Write a sequence for this structure.
């Protein structure tokens, strides 16, 4: 008979784990794995049309190669209440852009005040 148990395969549940710089290759695999409340930091997740039976619930993805996960009931891909933090470089670039805009606006406002003050006779 072998080592296989009768019935469906067991689902592996990974709960509240933190993964840093891991590569997860789920391509073409039926994994029967569920990640609950996990944190993925600088990870690479490889998922293709052959990936089946995989779930992510209430996970956080920081600086990973993905910015969203799409559910697919037919393939058993379940996603619920996950948070995708944008890559650090992207957030830094946005902050620098907003700071530059604020400085330009402040300089323009300062120049307008100087112009108004010198335009009216005293």
């Amino acid at each position: 008979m072998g080592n296989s148990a009768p019935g469906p395969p067991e689902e592996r549940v990974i709960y509240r784990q933190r993964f840093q710089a891991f590569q997860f290759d789920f391509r073409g695999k039926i994994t029967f794995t569920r990640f609950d409340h996990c944190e993925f930091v600088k990870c690479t997740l490889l998922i293709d049309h052959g990936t089946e039976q995989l779930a992510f619930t209430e996970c956080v993805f920081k600086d990973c190669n993905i910015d969203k996960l799409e559910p697919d009931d037919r393939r058993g891909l379940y996603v619920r209440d996950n948070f995708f933090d944008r890559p650090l470089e992207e957030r830094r670039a946005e902050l620098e852009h907003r700071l530059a805009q604020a400085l330009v606006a402040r300089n323009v406002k300062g120049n307008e005040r100087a112009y108004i003050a010198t335009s009216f006779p005293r």
In short: The chain has a mean pLDDT of 87. The helical segments are 88-119. The two ends are 103 Å apart (CA to CA). The first strand starts at residue 12 and ends at 15.
